[in-house]
Amino acid sequence: MKILKAFISFTTAAAMLNSPFLADTAISSLALTDSDIAIGESNTVRGDLNGDGKLDIFDLPIMRHSQPAPQTHTSTTITNILTGQWKTEGSIGIRDFTFNNGTGTFIMEDTGFQQDFTYTVQGVSFIMNIPYTLPLTAVMTWTDSAHFSLKWNDGTLEHFTLVSDNSANRQQNTTTQHSISNSQYSSPTGQHTIQNINGVTYIDGILVANKTYSLPATYNPNGLLPEVDAAFMEMARAAWNDGISLWICSGFRSYEYQKTLYNGYVSMYGKDATDTFSARPGHSEHQTGMAMDIIEASSAFEGTPAAIWLAENCYKYGFIIRYPKGKENITGYKYEPWHIRYLGKDTALAVYNSGLTLEEYLGIDSVYNY
């Protein structure tokens, strides 16, 4: 569903059957050396789909339209807590939404057309009811507490950004099933707001998954988030123009897959060694749908032209090198020049310019407490 770029030769492509073209299907084998991290769950080859005898970028449109329909999945949802004013962008046009405990209104900015509706969220299904029409349904995916996307049943994608959260209403609508809590703390980098929504931690609006902060086993966006996929595509095109081929060798990983992967490493290397390079289930950034490993998740990637390009440019497209060299005691993991995390362009630029890890930037640690 997400990927890219041509390869130098068919022989090279054949040697990478479990990595170059990303799809949302699991692979059954893991390539591993003493220093390597195995290829992840969401990888396979689509191959020469346009029949021109080459594996190249022109196979991409066919590949993207040949993917199976997304499965129903479970992720963080905020059924009764979805309130406030939101602004959208997408092919529908700019709309201003107001949500308030199951009722809402949207206004088309270009025409001023206004429509009242009722809404419900069932799992990740967003259902909008407008009088005298059939219900409109969409798949709801949260990026962080201030951004989510709706993929409507006709395939249209609409991105929502929080304008005003009506926090008083949110607190009144908190339930045991959909819980939310807020607090603040200070660090050398300033004052920070920490929010927990249904067991998922957001700090200054950034979803955090590390050794200190975990994700529920049920958190499952079932793939890279649409905006992350789009950002990678933009970055890969830019890299291609600079003579660099980028592809995803490991994208989204579910809780259960990470559990299998981690336990496999423990059986081979022991728990202490494994904790330096592999996350325990629930603590992996790959589960967020906002992290990926590029080309080759092993020490062989370090110092390659692709690694150098990635380090110098990925922030321009909303990504950071998540586990930089010399920061192992802060991030909790060894140097991984292949692992990037999506934060959005503004935040990624701020983190890049600060020279800090995400932990330092947010004033948090990354340490298991069990």
Give a written overview of the molecule.
The protein has helices spanning 10-15, 60-65, 167-172, 226-241, 255-269, 271-274, 305-313, 328-331, 345-354, 358-362; strands at 84-90, 95-100, 103-108, 114-122, 125-129, 136-144, 147-152, 157-164, 180-187, 190-197, 200-203, 206-207, 248-250, 291-294, 319-323, 336-342. It has 370 residues and is an alpha+beta fold. It folds into 2 domains: 10-70 and 220-362, 2-Layer Sandwich (Muramoyl-pentapeptide Carboxypeptidase, domain 2), CATH 3.30.1380.10; 84-178, Beta Barrel (Lipocalin), CATH 2.40.128. The longest helix has 16 residues, at 226-241. It is globular.
Describe how the helices and strands are arranged.
Layout: H1 10-15, H2 60-65, E1 84-90, E2 95-100, E3 103-108, E4 114-122, E5 125-129, E6 136-144, E7 147-152, E8 157-164, H3 167-172, E9 180-187, E10 190-197, E11 200-203, E12 206-207, H4 226-241, E13 248-250, H5 255-269, H6 271-274, E14 291-294, H7 305-313, E15 319-323, H8 328-331, E16 336-342, H9 345-354, H10 358-362
Antiparallel strand pairs: 1-2, 1-8, 2-3, 3-4, 4-5, 5-6, 6-7, 7-8, 9-10, 10-11, 11-12, 13-14, 14-16, 15-16
Looking at this protein, list some descriptive labels.
370 residues, Lipocalin, 8-stranded antiparallel barrel, 10 helices, 16 strands, 2 domains, 4-stranded antiparallel beta sheet, disordered N terminus, alpha+beta, Muramoyl-pentapeptide Carboxypeptidase, domain 2
Provide a short characterization of the protein structure.
This protein has helices spanning 10-15, 60-65, 167-172, 226-241, 255-269, 271-274, 305-313, 328-331, 345-354, 358-362, and strands spanning 84-90, 95-100, 103-108, 114-122, 125-129, 136-144, 147-152, 157-164, 180-187, 190-197, 200-203, 206-207, 248-250, 291-294, 319-323, 336-342. The protein is α+β, with helices and mostly antiparallel strands and 370 residues long.
